[in-house]
Specification:
mainly alpha, two-stranded antiparallel ribbon, extended, DUF4294 domain-containing protein, DUF4294
């Protein structure tokens, strides 16, 4: 009988300590999800995605310098692409809410003038290759090609005109962003910028 009381007492003490420990743990940590499988509890927690890229191997210093210049170009134009995405999200609902074409044209002219006043000098200093990267990144940020953006907001004739100008300089406003193919290096650099590595 004494053994039973000792065991019962130990169970009560262990239970009390476990309860105290669990209460302290609840205060100190976030609630975790668990999956019970065949009597075992497996803790389930979402962890942030880790981006892994293959290490770049360069045949010579010239390739390394070229890659580093490319990184600098992407870093230079990426903020403008982010701005384009933010502006599209801000102004597109306002644009679509306007009743008539005259109001829409007026809004676009005012916005265009505001952008020219603020960014004209920066855009003039961009090289052709930086402009091509910018077009790709605008497509990445807005999920729409530059051609479709111009067509939606300015009309078909201006879109065709600017496509012709772009073609003269070796660009294509209709070209879509391809993060797994042709534009994978741009995607790699942008991902590194977004996680704070570059």
């Amino acid at each position: 009988m004494g053994k039973v009381f000792k065991i019962a007492g130990m169970v009560v003490v262990v239970g009390f300590l476990l309860q105290k420990g669990l209460a302290a743990q609840e205060k100190d940590s976030a609630l975790m999800m668990g999956i019970i499988e065949k009597g075992d509890t497996i803790i389930h927690k979402n962890i942030p995605e880790i981006v892994v890229f293959p290490q770049r191997e360069f045949k010579n210093n010239r390739q390394r310098r070229r890659y580093n210049r490319f990184i600098e170009k992407v870093k230079k134009v990426y903020p403008y692409a982010k701005l384009a995405g933010e502006m599209l999200r801000e102004y597109e609902p306002k644009y679509l809410a306007l009743e008539d074409d005259r109001s829409r044209r007026k809004m676009m002219k005012e916005l265009e003038q505001q952008l020219l006043d603020e960014y004209k000098d920066d855009l003039k200093r961009m090289t052709l290759s930086e402009g091509r990267i910018l077009l790709k990144l605008i497509d990445r940020e807005t999920s729409r090609t530059s051609f479709s953006l111009i067509k939606d907001f300015r009309g078909g004739v201006p879109a065709v005109f600017w496509q012709g100008i772009a073609r003269l300089f070796g660009s294509n406003l209709k070209e879509e962003y391809d993060p797994k193919g042709e534009d994978r290096i741009i995607e790699e650099v942008v991902s590194l910028i977004e996680i704070g590595y570059l």
